[in-house]
Each structure stands twice: as C-alpha cells, then as structure tokens.
Amino acid sequence: MATRRTRLMTAGWLVVMAPATMFAQAPAPASSVLVSAPVAASAPATPYPWRGHEAEIEAFLREAPITHFKDIPVGITKPRRAYFAPGGAAASMAWKPLSPGLLHGKMESYKSEIAAYLLSRHLGLDLVPPVVEREIKGRKGAAIYWIDGVRPWNPSEPPVAVGPKWSRQTSQMMMFDLLIANIDRNQGNLLLDDAGNLHLIDHSRAFTTQPGLGTLKAPRQFDRQLWAQMDALTYESLEPVLRPWLDRMQIDALLKRRDAMRRLIERQVQERGDTVVFLPAAQALANS
Question: Which pTM does this prediction carry?
C-alpha cells in the first residue's frame, strides 16, 4: 500500500509523519482536539509516571500476574493489552510477541522495543515508557507499560503547539528517530497528553542496519544537551546497554548514523551559525 505522508509545521520546522500502520498501544477514543502548549496549571507535576520508578515498573511488567487480556483492534502487528490487579506499579501493558523477522515486507522485532527504551534511558530521555522482555505461554515478547490519558495526533487536524517545551520535545523525538533509524514514526504512535507532552511508542521497526540517514527527517534545530549525549556514544558504552537486544551490525550502524548526524550538524553550523542550529539552553529559557 502506498504511503501517504502528512506534513506538519511546528515551531519553525517540518515534521513528516506516515499514516498509522501499527500500535504498541491503541490510541484513546478519537477526538479532533487541538492541543496547545504551554500547559494549564492543573497539569501533573510529572507527565511521565515511570520517571524515578523504572526499576520497580520493569520488575512488575516482567513478573506480575496477568488477570486477563483484550485484543487491540488496530495495527497490523496484533498486539494485545494485558491487565493487572489494581494497586500495582502498572494498570496494564501492551504485549508484543514479535519474533525478529519480516512482517508485511518490513523487519519487525520485539527486541527493538526493548532497545529503544534502554537507549532512551541511557540518553536521559523520558519520552519512551518502560519495556521489558517477558515470556507468556512459552512465547517471548515485549511487555510495554501502558500509558493512560494520551491520544494520537490527528493527521487532518494537527496539534497547534508553541513554546520552548514543545520545540525541545519534538527536536528530541526527531533526533532519537535519526539515531535509531525509526522508519515508522506516525500519528498512531506519537502520543500527546492533555498538557501537550510527547510520549513515544512503537519502535519494533527501528535499528535497521542502514548506515546513513536516508529519508529520515532532521529537525531544523537540535537539542544541544541531547546531542552531547549522542556525540559521546561509543561501541564500548553501548554494548552493555543494548546487547543482547541488538547485534553488532545494528550497533555499528547506529554509530554510523550518529557520525552522519555530526556531519549534518557541522555543515549546518557553518551555513547558519551555532545559535540558529541549536535550541537555546534549557537553563537560559528557565531564566528568561
């Protein structure tokens, strides 16, 4: 099926998204709502409930008894939603037992879901929810923390969001997708809460072995702090984080894409200047 891309202009640069093809969790009931940031004063203190509780949630996802399953009526990878008894570290999880291999002509792997979460933590990002390997009825897969209170972007009515937080989060998203070669970022797996906070799911097609950036889109402005973390990556620092979820060829390709990002950034700095290519520092924004 031909891919139709919807273009979204936000914070002065272009985000390109493909139509939804797969979901680690189903979107909330559809509603054409424009989201604006900054947020209302009633927003929760942290939009990412797993922050600071990752170890507890990971253990819970891996071991907690499941009360029942429900089918998720969207997506070609056929994930299911598994529920836990009330009062635990998570109310439910998405279950994706995707063995590494081709599905509808695309490489899919539950291991890529785990690698994306672990790499996001290694880089200091909060946008990807916890994911662990779990075995259910003899089948291994990705157990993914289910995020409540979020909805996908509406491709026909994209969210209108302005301000430094939105610019930084969307820049981080695009930088992360460049690094992991995520070819499947779309309106179904790019989720927003009511406060305009991004939540990134569905990375089973990421971590290809392509060494270049290909058709992946770069932000017009980069998050300097995140780039410093990416620029410092080495095989020695990544191996204990990403093995056994990725093989050496995948990690090598990741580092080659990082090198391609470096060349892109250096070229843009020469052409446009450092203060244009990088977003203002978060501290400077807080003090302004």
Answer: 0.82
